[in-house]
Amino acid sequence: MNDSSYPNDWDSLTRTRLLFFFFFFFFCFLLFTFYFFFFRPFSRPELRRHMLILSAYHCYYYPDSASYPTIARSACYQSIYHPT
User: SS3 of 1, please?
Assistant: First the structure.
């Protein structure tokens, strides 16, 4: 049934608005996440604890990134014990 008087909620303008707001809020969420978890990862004790747990999880399940003979020189060790 193709009645032109039927209200079409998914016209091009509505689609454009919805996509714009979706990507805008998604971009804001990504900006917020990257700022607080990559630029200030050790600013608060609970964030520091959380990041240490995630780093230990990564080092345990991906041991090639921090093998025992070179653990002090590895990027994994450096990211945990020497955050910049």
Answer: coil
Residues 52 and 69 in one domain: yes
The number of distinct structural domains making up the chain is 2
pTM over 0.85? The answer is no
Cβ–Cβ under 8 Å, residues 52 and 82: no
**What is the per-residue pLDDT across 20-41, written as a single tens digit (0 to 9) for each?**
889 999 998 888 887 776 666 5
The two structure tokens encoding residue 48: 């520091």
The whole-angstrom separation of Cα 75 and Cα 68 is 13
* CA distances from residue 7 to 15, 19, 24 in whole angstroms, order as listed: 14, 20, 27
> Is residue 31 located within the same domain as residue 58?
no
Look up the domain containing 26 and give its range: 12-41
